Amino acid sequence: MFNSTITEDDKFSCPVDGSIMITASHLPYNRNGFKFFTNAGGLGKADIKDILELAANIYNNFTVESMKDAERKAASSVKRVDYMDIYTSDLVAAVRKAAGNIEKPLDGFHIVVDAGNGAGGFFAAKVLEPLGAITTGSQFLEPDGLFPNHIPNPEDKAAMKAITQAVLDNKADLGIIFDTDVDRSAAVDSTGRELNRNRLIALMSAIVLEDHPGTTIVTDSVTSDGLTAFIEGKLGGKHHRFKRGYRNVIDEAIRLNSIGEESHLAIETSGHGALKENHWLDDGAYLMVKLLNKLASARALGGSGGSKVLTELVEGLEEPAVVVELRLKIDQSHPDLKGGSFREYGEAVLKHLDNITESNPKLQKAPVNYEGVRASGYGGWFLLRLSLHDPVLPLNIEAPSDEDAVKLGLAVLAAANEFPALDTSALDKYVRVS
Fold it and tell me: Which of 63, 196, 322, 428 is 20 to 30 A (C-alpha) from 131?
């Protein structure tokens, strides 16, 4: 959709002035919405508010006859084109270029795709096969908004298990998985090792920093301390941990560039990744093309290790033994809110936790933090933040052992227990059972 606004091709009526896609992403089929694009990128909340207000004003001035006349004119001007051919040919050309303009740089590579019955099934036949890759074993390529096999979501355990199994069953070199509308993606290497979340960020950071030494990598707030050590200690880059929300991460990278701090990658643990070279578009297909470029260029230089060239790039990434994600819900009908908003209540919880953390000698607050309360201690860290949209305080904990994770959980629980409207049952259960 975005590329159609910057492509120059009269045959396809491009560049278009704007484009609209209908998608629910990985949510159920009845949660569809619109995404709007111009050549400046995806529209944000303020833009959409303006569109709605403008549309309402136009509608109010329509008569029945003028409405019918507008509909007739619109229907007669519709032209159907297969723009996907242009889009996919650009992706194919990018991989060929990375390999020194070899026609089939992935010849002999076995790569399976799992589209989860979303929109990403095109990648097997229109990108991989023209490059010479074998794609047998690819699965769930036909779009079906009921998602009969698994949710198309690179963060979903069932989804990652499905693509991992496909790689192992087919003895493939690489597996690629997309979310529904292909703005997120992840991979699996030939041994079944998942390249998503922190590992995908580490991999993309290694690739980007080869071309742009010292650049700043912008991520969301829940990335690990081990990732920071990897980006800054091993790769020589700078890790700028910002807020959750892919648009927040992208906008922050754009802001840093505007004030003279070079940044070429903005990426969330969810699999949203955007590169400066690709107009800051969170395009999951383009992200996977960057991985294919490494495979193709390694092959062109005489290497034949399959996905090993990718896994070698993330060697040295410290990964926690224990990863915990919990959601503490705020009961909006509880009298303790005293008629206030859940957001005000959540902020009060965070303020109290911030004070407790400050006075705890075994915890150290993150020196730079843009969201919630983040602290290190007991060999790990926790982050408690307020959800962007819902009456929920998500809690992330990473630690070297269950015992250490429980200690971090208890530190949060000590503050959370002071707020009766906060449902701490998930955290209570965790610290008791672990």
Answer: 196
